Amino acid sequence: MKNEKLKKLILCAVFVDLIAAGAFMRIPIPVVPFTLQYLFTMLAGLLLGGRLGGTAVSVYVILGLIGLPIFTQGGGPGYLAQPTFGYLVGFAAGAYLTGKIANQVEKPGYKRLLIANFVGLAVVYAFGMIYYYFVSNYYLNVPIEVWPLFLYCFILAVPGDVLLCFAGAFLSKRLIPILKPERMS
After folding, report:
1. Is the pLDDT at 30 greater than 80, yes or no?
2. CA distance 147 to 86
3. Residue 180 burial (CB < 10 Å; 0-12/13-18/19+)?
4. Which of 10, 23, 52, 65 has its CA 20 to 30 A from that of 89?
5. What is the pLDDT confidence band of residue 185, given thresholds at 50, 70 and 90?
């Protein structure tokens, strides 16, 4: 029991580190940069389960908000005023939901993993785009209409994340038996 708790704690910490590293592995595109954060938040949900995956992402967000420069543009409580902060909240909710869907069965197949990944991706974009719209229009007074929001915050960004959904399903299908050997017995 003690070893299992330690294993979970270590895996959560590893995913916090991977998500932070993923923030700096980026391809600059207008408005919302493409990073590998989504891959690591998705894998947290798939490999740790909904509760622990969501917890790992939430710890990452909290660490960034208290001032560690682990977000793509730094960190600190002022990051709440960044229009892209909603994507970070979406990462936590998406990891939770991805993990819940994928781990409903003992040995998830590619189809279940992909469905979980795409549902999580939809959650990330919903949180991200809604937050972006409201912060830009009502807090920063930098109006953005729905079409430009959809173009810059979805159309330009989603193709890379779709590829990450496939990569996440592929990786998790291979990593689940390693991280959760009891599932294979």
Report:
1. no
2. 18
3. middle
4. 10
5. very low
Amino acid identity, position 180: K
pTM of the model: 0.91
What angle, rounded to 10 degrees, do the helices at 110-134 and 85-102 form?
160
CB atoms within 10 A of CB 82: 18
Alpha carbon of residue 135 to chain centroid: 20
**How many whole angstroms separate alpha carbon 6 and alpha carbon 162?**
33
Per-residue pLDDT for 40 more than 80? yes
DSSP bridge pairs for 34: 27
pLDDT in tens, 104-128: 998 999 999 999 999 999 999 999 9
Quick one: tokens of 51? 């509760």
The answer on pLDDT for 48 being more than 60 is yes
For the chain, the average pLDDT equals 92
Question: Letter for the amino acid at 108?
Answer: P
Q: What's the burial of 164, exposed, middle or buried (CB within 10 Å: 0-12/13-18/19+)?
A: buried
Give the number of other Cβ atoms within 10 Å of residue 114's Cβ.
Answer: 17
